[in-house]
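RECORD TYPE: inverse folding
INPUT: structure tokens
STRUCTURE:
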């Protein structure tokens, strides 16, 4: 059951008249989570749920799916035809002007832009001002409960251990002259997930050069390279506990299949590490001093370090993403490149900090997770300080 009073308090504070939820064919997972709908049936017809800043919530459902919103408080209106739906929608929104929806101006934040353009046009035709629900979503979906934070820490302890053992496995196979491919190491990590009660929507990444120069390289049986002595091995691992409402833990580490890390690799890692640490420090300082910051500012802090080092064109993705029940969550992203994420960083949210430099010959990324509390921000797991020499 959603906390209607808390939502209404936030609407009043944000000077909005209401929050309009809309779904059709399960297009909006944010609505499902915030409204705690679970599996609410077929959803082959459009439904609307309106939480006004004052007063009782209101529902609009199709007559052949009248039970779609029965779990929610509020009075119900029903429709059959499209003309009736529009008339009823006007009644549903009566007394309101400024309405939040899962909409993002110019689709700047694609994670939030889930309501189709035609539905936004329809609401505007009813003389309503549609505004983004982005910060509301952060408060009521992206912010973690204490139980979710614990699930993150539990998953983190296991993932950190699997990463260490994966590096050890690669080193042992190389030392013993046994074949091991990126794909085989990836599949071994997935087996470790299952054995330790973890799950993931997508498999982890194991990549040697030049494949680690591709930020989203996917090892497959047909394109996977063997892992050999002298290789730079990047592991990008994300997973969560197999229990309801658990949230992800997501890290990237690099190791070298040799006794001494080559200077070319060490140099790039130092730059990436400095960018990572600058972004983390920027967040920590802001939270400690109660200063409001936005996702794009964190990205800018990391990106400036890499720009000054001369590798701006080789940092081709945002600095970090929100982390939640999906590995790419619905809170603020650390992004001034792919979008200008102007969402505030709010308490009880978590995100990755993962700058990288990608060259034709190899790529290096270092990723940590940062959790923002009420008065402090912290990295939730181990922090890599140098490339691991795996055969030392």
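DESIGNED SEQUENCE:
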């Amino acid at each position: 059951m959603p906390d209607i009073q808390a939502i209404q308090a936030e609407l009043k504070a944000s000077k909005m008249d209401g929050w309009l939820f809309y779904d059709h064919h399960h297009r909006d997972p944010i609505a499902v989570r915030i409204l705690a709908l679970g599996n609410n049936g077929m959803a082959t017809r459009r439904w609307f749920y309106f939480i006004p800043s004052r007063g009782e919530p209101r529902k609009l459902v199709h007559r052949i799916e009248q039970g779609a919103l029965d779990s929610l408080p509020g009075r119900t209106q029903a429709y059959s035809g499209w003309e009736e739906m529009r008339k009823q929608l006007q009644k549903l929104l009566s007394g309101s002007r400024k309405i939040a929806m899962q909409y993002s101006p110019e689709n700047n934040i694609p994670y939030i832009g889930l309501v189709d353009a035609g539905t936004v046009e329809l609401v505007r035709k009813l003389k309503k001002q549609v505004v983004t629900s982005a910060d509301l979503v952060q408060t009521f979906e992206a912010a973690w409960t204490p139980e979710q934070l614990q699930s993150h820490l539990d998953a983190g302890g296991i993932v950190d251990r699997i990463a260490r053992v994966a590096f050890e496995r690669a080193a042992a196979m190389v030392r013993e002259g046994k074949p091991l491919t990126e794909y085989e190491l990836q599949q071994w990590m997935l087996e470790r997930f299952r054995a330790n009660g973890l799950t993931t929507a997508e498999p982890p990444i194991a990549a040697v050069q030049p494949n680690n120069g591709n930020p989203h390289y996917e090892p497959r049986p047909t394109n996977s390279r063997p892992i050999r002595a002298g290789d730079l091995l990047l592991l990008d691992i994300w997973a969560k506990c197999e229990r309801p409402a658990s949230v992800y833990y997501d890290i990237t580490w690099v190791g070298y299949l040799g006794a001494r890390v080559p200077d070319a690799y060490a140099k790039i890692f130092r730059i990436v590490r400095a960018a990572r640490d600058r972004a983390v420090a920027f967040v920590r300082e802001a939270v400690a001093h109660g200063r409001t910051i936005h996702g794009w500012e964190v990205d800018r802090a990391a990106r400036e370090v890499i720009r000054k080092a001369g590798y701006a064109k080789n940092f081709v993705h945002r600095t970090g993403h929100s982390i939640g029940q999906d590995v790419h969550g619905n809170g603020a992203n650390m992004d001034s490149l792919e979008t200008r994420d102007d969402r505030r960083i709010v308490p009880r949210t978590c995100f990755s900090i993962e700058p990288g430099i990608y060259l034709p010959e190899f790529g290096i990324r270092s990723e940590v997770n940062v959790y923002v509390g009420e008065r402090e921000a912290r990295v939730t797991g181990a922090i890599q300080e140098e490339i691991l020499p795996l055969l030392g």
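NOTES: Residues 143-389 form a domain with the Creatine Amidinohydrolase fold (CATH 3.90.230.10).
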